[in-house]
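Example (one chain per record):
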Amino acid sequence: MAKPIELGLVLDGEDAREFHRYMENPSHYDTPEGRELARRAAYLARKTRL
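Predicted structure:
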């Protein structure tokens, strides 16, 4: 039987709240700050995969 995939990235505190706000209204974050948030999230995702 296949083993479940573990994502390995857990958000907590302000990061989790910010992500939740983004998921509720992503178009609101089409700002320089929102794009920086997306860049930072992508960087952290790549960093945790290594």
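Caption: The chain has two helices and no strands.
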